[in-house]
Design goal:
8 helices, alpha/beta, 7-stranded parallel sheet, 268 residues, 7 strands
Length: 268
Amino acid sequence: MSEELAGRVALVTGGVRGIGLAAAEKLAAKGAKVWIGDLTSESDDAVAKALGSIGGGAAYVQLNVTEEQSWIDAIAKIEAADGRLDVLVNNAGIDGTGRIQDMSLELWRKVQAVNSDGAFLGVKHSFALMEKSGKDRKGGSSIINVSSIMGFVAFPESAAYCTSKGAIRLFTKACAVEFAAYGVPIRANSVHPGFVQTPLLDEGFERMVSRGVAEKAQDLKDQVAASTPVNRLADPDEIGDAVAFLATEASSYMTGSELVVDGGYISR
């Protein structure tokens, strides 16, 4: 365990599983106190398991990233407990696959609400606390928005997801240049994972199988692994390492950057 983030406080949304949990574990390993926010009830066994995995005095706040009051309450809880917030990881996300002509407006809006609106609300309502916390730290506080390679390239039946992740890519840059222009001690960077072995990936592929896109989910995994230069899917820990790097002072001169962790996929 290192002490690069000793005395710092982080919030990771969608932190009970997948990339969010991996990022929380990596931040805690660098000495941060980590709050995880998720829809799951605090009494759920998954929450206890995640907190135990993270360690380091990790805490939980129930958070619906699409609801403004939920964000207000979550940040107030963190401020009351710790008095600061140094790192915000906007990771919560859903997919929502389907052909454009068959997709309901309801599903389209749900994907944008979770993936895009959630990041906006997180930045908006954490701003004051992160600005205060960043004044005593080289590089200031750090916002890390988890986008995707689908913020760069498109895939069939993924229009809603691609749109939301492209929005996150540009929203991050808007945050970065605006904060810098006003001398606000907060950096903002985006992480763009490729195909990662997570429950979200499994669920998305299973839905595609149910629509007849493939016979089984493993076939789809094999296809995307074969189309990735390193010939495999990523482990969540590999994305967590990238998030943790952007949280530390080692990345203090980075803002508005796109950190692509995709096994070379978009380099082809």
